[in-house]
Here is the input.
Amino acid sequence: MDNELKRSNRRQRINIERDKLKIEVVDMRDLKISIIGAGSAIFSLRLVGDLCRTKDLSNSLVSLMDIDSERLDAVYALATRYARLLGSGLRFEKTADLRKSIEGADFVINTALVGGHAEQAKMRAIGEKHGYYRGIDAQEFNMVSDYFTLTNTGQFNYFLKIAHTIEELVPNAYFLLASNPVFEGTNLISRASGVKVVGFCHGHEGVKDIFKVLDMNEKDVDWQVAGFNHNIWLTRFRYRGADGYKFLDSWIERESENWKPEDPFDVQLSPGVIDMYRFYGKIPIGDAARNGSWKYNYNDEVKKKWYGEPWGGADSSEGWAWYQKRLARSTAKTEEMARDENYDLLKEFPPEKMSGEQHIPFIDAIVNNNGVRLVLNIRNSGPEGDLIIPSFPKEVIIEVPVWVDSSGIKPEKIDPAIPKRIVNMYLTPRWMRMEWAIEAYLSRDISILKEFLYRDPRTKSEEQVEGVIRDIALSNPAFKEHYSL
Amino acid sequence: MDNELKRSNRRQRINIERDKLKIEVVDMRDLKISIIGAGSAIFSLRLVGDLCRTKDLSNSLVSLMDIDSERLDAVYALATRYARLLGSGLRFEKTADLRKSIEGADFVINTALVGGHAEQAKMRAIGEKHGYYRGIDAQEFNMVSDYFTLTNTGQFNYFLKIAHTIEELVPNAYFLLASNPVFEGTNLISRASGVKVVGFCHGHEGVKDIFKVLDMNEKDVDWQVAGFNHNIWLTRFRYRGADGYKFLDSWIERESENWKPEDPFDVQLSPGVIDMYRFYGKIPIGDAARNGSWKYNYNDEVKKKWYGEPWGGADSSEGWAWYQKRLARSTAKTEEMARDENYDLLKEFPPEKMSGEQHIPFIDAIVNNNGVRLVLNIRNSGPEGDLIIPSFPKEVIIEVPVWVDSSGIKPEKIDPAIPKRIVNMYLTPRWMRMEWAIEAYLSRDISILKEFLYRDPRTKSEEQVEGVIRDIALSNPAFKEHYSL
Here is the structure.
């Protein structure tokens, strides 16, 4: 009994600093998880559900933070009701105050999108007015329509605000970055602050689409993905000891031409991705499947050819409109669920299985030593300071499979290595674009963003570059102020 | 007397293999220098003049090799006459046979341009027909109009033919690559063969334009350039202990707007180069001054704005036409000089001073230990196997100042380092384009060249890429055969 009590009420607090590991045993009731941007109901409830289902974390305090008080109230009501339904001991607080939410937190999860999709739509429209189809943030190898890296000054500001608040109040807390752009964001935070930042994305789940289509049981597959966030490749693919790509090849031969997408996001086995596979020798996974070069993305018609009718993938005009409608429906539903005390939450969020998000398993592994394999965004630095991906410097954040437990994050050895063609023709150009975006932001030098646009195939003249930057500054105060325009 | 005889008739033959140094003393009369593509009269006579002026090399045998027998005969006649006029003991042979010229050579200098400018003009015209202004070989950071890296299959074939012939017949000979593209060429040769290849270019002489304009005596300047061939930057610039860039800044303030080019090649201090200096913080030197991004190169009008009226630099339609006319005049003059036994060669090629080309001083340093500072293209590997430019792998060929003597080529420590912005926004993208071009050639995979074009701002569609590749294959047999089109 006494032992049982100990197990449930005490936990280890792990403090990993640059080169040392400290383990303290503290009361489990102390565990505080802060969710920034918690007004995103679906995401928050997935995390809350996972927490309820994770026995060793079920007494934690969850701090829901959002500046939209209506949405925050709705999520708070839903979360408490859902936890009660599941018989969980989770406790909640809600706040619009970032500092208050971070105060005392062990883990800070950021899912906020500053300005929301509406702001991004505005930036996109200005870009299109100046001849930049899908906006200036849509870039080669970064076509995902809410992965903004150039006009998203407010988002970068907020990333650093959270990081600096963590540094000040809870320097040993983990910063779990779940909001985009995860690649630019984790690199920015890691260079501009000393916090322990880890990037989260579920994009690697795209491997399951492949296993399903090939009728493979995941437990029979030995797989690795490697690259950058939204730019990962299936570098290892063994099925029951055989080369998994042979099965993919024969599927392509038999079935590829009959392929049809079920929704705009169903592009993992689209003709564009098969074309990339043929060229690069490996298949891009998850969001990487959406991130080809302009060849697949010149316009909506070209997108339809490569990502399937009728949408042309999620990042065409029609595909993105489809997604925005779905988001609006989901927001309306959240409001309805929050209003209606008798709404069947258990039907909406089935209690049995984990959501598939990695955040709570990560926390459980760190806190309770429940070891787990995840795919995370971490510095390119192996256990002995060696490079995990040899082609990039150690400070660059890469996305790779890792083993997490209370001793920390242990990256797997990437074997086989990422093919040279992927390194030279895909990852290095993408890495450079990250460097340019971060350097522009950190130096506040607008000439870097202009030079970025001079390298953009949609740019035809100096006037076009000056014009689009001027109009963006006019309707984006954070951008205007940051670059002193 | 005996000693004097020894000194003039004997020399050391230096054989540097990967990790060992062998020195044999051999008869100086054995020294053989092969000039491939010797039909280029001006270049050949500059080398011959330098040899005549270099006492310790004046008994060498010069093998003039060219497949154009008329031009070869003319150069042979001129060279022997010129050497006689200078009272030199140089001996000459002429041949159209590559093997014969390389047989027994200690130094092989390649200056041949396979197909000549006419072939390049044909490729350029096909590109322009398909919407590629200045042809598909004109690329960001590589706008020099005879620096072909994509359609120049014949040139690459010839580079490797020479390299493999050297490997077979005279494996210890130095291969001095003087013909373009030196960056792609030296990297290709160094990866596909075991010969000792060194790249030569006089582009760094652009520093002298700057010293002249700033009224600086070169001996008072402490300078370094670093980068890749045609992509070098003035990374160190100290004048009498002060920061040389301060003088440049005040020249720009006072004089920049009155600047006018004297000819299309006079672009070292053009507005485009000053703009690059403002952005990158250092000034690009020599041919690098011609190699900006598309911002400076969209079309002839844009080029005029940045490189000056009336030509818009050497790489506009008008500037290049000017250069072709000059080349034609020079060819006509060579023929005239060769025909007319009484032509005053000494007036045309004044005997007093060295040509400024680096080849003969290099040979003299290696053979006779007459140490000299040069700017050469060598592997990025320092004396202790350390990286000379830390941002690039050791196998990449870089252009840096070196000290050469009979113990070999000793690169200077690059200090200060190349600024990060130049590495990330200029050199790394240029490096990648070299890798893509070489990988396309070595793998014979046309899809790499197509992907290259998909990343080209002038490409608007898949059809355009397919069309230009098809038409190039139709009129370029070496290209067609190499890529099995």
